[in-house]
Amino acid sequence: MGSSFLLSFLALFIGFRSCAGSGWAPGLPYDRNTIHSCLEWYDNDEGKTCEQVRDYFKITPEQFFEWNPSIGLDCKPWKLQSYCIVTLERVETDPPKPRTKCEDTCYRAQFDFAGVKEGNECWCSSYVAGERTRNETDCNKPCTGDKTKMCGSKDLINVFAPDWDSTSELNEELWTEADGTTKAESKDAIGTAKVEAEGEVVSAHSSSSGGMRYRALFQ
Hints:
By secondary structure, this protein is an alpha+beta fold. It is 21% helix and 24% strand. The chain has five helices and twelve strands.
């Protein structure tokens, strides 16, 4: 995978849910054993408890421990340092593996979103924000093993979520944010994606375009 593609995807997987003490780089000392794929950090200098931080970012105790091995499942010791709150996880697919299997892989791993790219690449993340692309047909790469479905393209990613009904409040915030940031100011290689829920394109408006351009995250 080339560096240009990696950079485009880093922009796509940055967390949507954030607070004043979080950022793309640690602002405090951190454990050198923190997971290497960390994309966003929480600086523990706001007086919040470990449990509050985990609940806010919807991170399970097991995930938080995996990403931050210096702290136990019981949230101890909770030190004045930076902790990882967003990671980038990529699941390489073995052909043939259509997008339904990618979704299953991500959901079983307790990720909220699955994304497919270039026919057979599977990406998993915890949340998404961004802008719709103008034409969902830009995702025109047939899925390996299922030529009747599209699995992104060279620069685009199809993104899927298991169940929006249980997270309607979050979705409303996400789509409002997406609509509020639909600008032609970004000309770099940020990935775009089509978002689907239960087989239908999710859209804040009744529009024929179902793609999304993610500049704040697909974690």
